[in-house]
């Protein structure tokens, strides 16, 4: 992934988007800016994305130029900020078979044997770039480029909770049953989201995730 020049663009009349590119160094700066802005302008909803930060605001309450200046200032001051390291989470995964029905397709698309897909997927350490799509769904960067595959042309109406999947150059785990279009290669029983926990989501931006082979079907 390559960085692009940071830019701030309007998204309708009630939102502004700071785009910086989705490499890890830029994402770390976004984390720093996000933490600052949530405290500085709590009346604005700040949504952290992969390579971007979106501000949703009421223009009758908060002027767009104030949000723009806040974004510019937070981004400028984010250079060199050292954040506390995130936690490391290891997720046991049953790969292939009924748990990963797209593993054979991923192997065929990449030209790798299924066992090699699993080996490469479980060998990497992944960084949580951001959360989204579903409560507790973490977008994980660090996928082996050989494993990058397109999303399904016919998304499933129901993906089981815990499904480990690949979509483009990212991997992730569905924390809840939902529709989805990523390629399913395995499943974990780890509870990624529990609304009754003090912190419902298991993962947060900046955390490190590793996948541990429990079984290959």
From TrEMBL:
<dbReference type="InterPro" id="IPR003833">
    <property type="entry name" value="CT_C_D"/>
</dbReference>
<dbReference type="InterPro" id="IPR010016">
    <property type="entry name" value="PxpB"/>
</dbReference>
<keyword id="KW-0547">Nucleotide-binding</keyword>
<keyword id="KW-0067">ATP-binding</keyword>
<protein>
    <submittedName>
        <fullName>5-oxoprolinase subunit PxpB</fullName>
        <ecNumber>3.5.2.9</ecNumber>
    </submittedName>
</protein>
<feature type="domain" description="Carboxyltransferase">
    <location>
        <begin position="6"/>
        <end position="203"/>
    </location>
</feature>
<dbReference type="GO" id="GO:0017168">
    <property type="term" value="F:5-oxoprolinase (ATP-hydrolyzing) activity"/>
</dbReference>
<keyword id="KW-0378">Hydrolase</keyword>
<dbReference type="Pfam" id="PF02682">
    <property type="entry name" value="CT_C_D"/>
</dbReference>
<dbReference type="InterPro" id="IPR029000">
    <property type="entry name" value="Cyclophilin-like_dom_sf"/>
</dbReference>
């Amino acid at each position: 992934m390559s960085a692009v020049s940071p830019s701030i663009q309007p998204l309708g009349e009630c939102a502004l988007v700071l785009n910086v590119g989705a490499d890890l160094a830029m994402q770390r700066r976004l984390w720093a800016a996000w933490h600052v802005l949530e405290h500085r302008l709590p009346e604005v909803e700040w949504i952290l994305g992969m390579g971007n930060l979106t501000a949703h605001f009421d223009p009758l309450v908060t002027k767009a130029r104030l949000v723009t200046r806040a974004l510019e200032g937070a981004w400028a001051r984010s250079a060199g900020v050292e954040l506390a390291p995130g936690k490391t989470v290891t997720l046991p995964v049953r790969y292939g078979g009924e748990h990963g029905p797209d593993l054979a397709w991923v192997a065929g698309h990449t030209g790798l044997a299924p066992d090699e897909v699993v080996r490469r997927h479980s060998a990497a350490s992944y960084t949580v770039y951001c959360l989204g799509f579903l409560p507790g769904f973490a977008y994980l960067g660090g996928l082996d480029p050989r494993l990058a595959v397109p999303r399904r042309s016919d998304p499933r109406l129901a993906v089981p909770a815990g499904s480990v999947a690949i979509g483009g150059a990212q991997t992730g785990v569905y924390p809840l049953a939902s529709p989805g279009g990523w390629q399913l290669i395995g499943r974990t029983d780890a509870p990624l989201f529990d609304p009754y926990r003090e912190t419902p989501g298991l993962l947060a931006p900046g955390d490190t995730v590793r996948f541990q082979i429990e079984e290959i079907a």
